[in-house]
Amino acid sequence: MYLNFLDIVSQLQKSYEIDLRSIGNQPAIIDVVFLNFCPVSWSEYTLYIGDSSMLHPSPDKPIMLLTTEDDEVESILPTGSNIGIIPENEVKDIYEMAMDIFHRDLKSQVILYQISTEALHGKDIVSLINTAASLIGNALILVDTNMKVLVHSTIFEIEDLLWAENIKLGHYTQEFIHKLKNNKEMREWTKSGDESKIIAFEGDKQPKLVTRITQNGHVIGALVMIAHHTPINHSHVKQLPKIGRILFDTFNSIFGDERYMSYHSTILYHLLSGDDISDTLDLSTLTGADFPNQMIAVVARFIRRIENRYFKRSVGIELERIFPNGYPVQYKNYVAVVVPSISKEQWNELNKLVKAEEINIGISWPFTNILEFRKYFYQAVTSIKLAHNSKNMILNYTDYAFYDLLSNYNGRIALNNFCHPSLELLKQYDKDNNTELYKTFETYLKCNMKLGDTAKELYLHRNTVTYRINRIVEITGIDLNDVSIITSLVDSYRIQNFLESEKHL
């Protein structure tokens, strides 16, 4: 990317009349000189501007020249020279504008050098895009073809409401997608068009310069510059494709090449968003070869709020490493992967992950139809939410399904009315006698009514547990051999625990 004769002339022609007389090779311009005296030597890398009377002695090599009208100028210059004729009364103004263009181009070269250097030295993607935004003077947003916001600069406030919402969600909103599809500039921007294009929606206060990022002839992403602090100029148009390529390559070097997963991830994302994808996909095929016959949704969420998508994506990478045959998707504040099964080794890896990254992971029930993914995704999410203050845990929906039922109960009868009366008897007895029969009986039921396991759990002697269970039977009159009663008691404890947890929310 260098400034040549035709580059600078095309910019000057926006303001001045320039008649091109001869076009030769296009070397890089390394200097701009005003012809108010005869140069000691001529350079083919210098743009000369001024009166043609200053061309004596004649150049001994092809040069780049913008000069006043002279019938002999073409004959005295070597073959291969670039010649443009300019008005005599605008020579100085054209020179000053050419110098401005040249200096902006030099600045562009420095900017690209700085960004490239920092990328080569392994600077993280967030710092790198902030450096780029600072140098070009505008906010930057890197996106992919799955309508995801990969990373954005944070040093400038993004006041554009549509893009601010896209960034907040991590993906395009339905309103944004609608405006995108109905935008004339976007419709006319074909693959054969310029790399960069100014795009503005109706009602926008700041135009956007958008550059496509391509690989092997296919669009893989885009870099968006919001012109809020610095007006869009020619150097931005030339810079943005290079900057976009550096940022996208840096992002991929950190997070790996995920293009083979993009089709499945896009389907999963749209299923979660509730978008209608029937117009673009044959839904009848999605239950076949595209996804496994049986699936489980594994969903991770940070215990504390994380704004930096770099850290969120690192968790996604770990999930993909643990489940190489899974299909990843990031949605809102959750990182998920659809897997065919979970082996013992993978359970161990998940346990390591939740402790290392301060996350909770929810596990759904198995399902067979990918079109029901949203339902099972939210089973895993519900497990995380109903665990309340649990930290660094793997949470199986099987353990929370009953609580999910309770949380969605909207009947007129209080849930307490569905609790077995024996529990109230034990609570009252404990209160009156300073005992712990209520807790002992709950632990006994959790331990599948095994005295030894209960004693171990409560750090009591087996005989003590035996005594307490016998005392519970005496107080309540329950039959421990009646399966229906035992089931009712287990559910009653769950209701009590759920109601207790609701008090502390």
Radius of gyration: 35 Å
- Which regions are unreliable across 5 or more consecutive residues at pLDDT < 50? 256-261, 279-289
Structural class: alpha/beta
Q: What is the CATH topology classification name of the largest domain?
A: Alpha-Beta Plaits
Subunit organisation of the chains = single chain
- CATH second-level architecture of the largest domain: 2-Layer Sandwich
Q: For the largest sheet, list the strands in their spatial order.
A: 1-5-4-3-2
Explain this structure to me?
The protein has 505 residues and is of the alpha/beta class. The protein has 4 domains: 5-97; 122-256, GAF domain (Beta-Lactamase), CATH 3.30.450; 261-407, Reverse transcriptase/Diguanylate cyclase domain (Alpha-Beta Plaits); 415-503, PucR C-terminal helix-turn-helix domain (Arc Repressor Mutant, subunit A). The protein is built from 18 helices and 15 strands. β6 and β7 form a beta hairpin. The radius of gyration is 35 Å and the shape is rod-shaped.
Key structural traits:
505 residues; rod-shaped; 45% helix; five-stranded antiparallel beta sheet; single chain; Alpha-Beta Plaits; 4 domains; five-stranded mixed beta sheet; Beta-Lactamase; alpha/beta
Give me the secondary-structure topology:
Blueprint lengths: L4 H8 L6 E4 L8 E5 L10 E5 L13 E4 L5 H4 L5 E4 L5 H30 L4 H12 L2 E6 L4 E4 L8 H9 L4 H8 L2 H5 L7 E4 L8 E8 L2 E9 L7 H22 L6 H12 L22 E7 L6 H14 L4 E5 L2 E6 L4 H14 L1 E5 L9 H14 L7 E3 L4 H7 L13 H13 L3 H10 L4 H8 L3 H15 L6 H21 L2
Parallel strand pairs: 2-3, 3-4, 4-5, 14-15
Antiparallel strand pairs: 1-5, 6-7, 6-10, 8-9, 9-10, 11-13, 11-14, 12-13
Helix pairs in contact: 3-4, 3-8, 4-8, 10-11, 13-18, 15-16, 15-17, 16-17
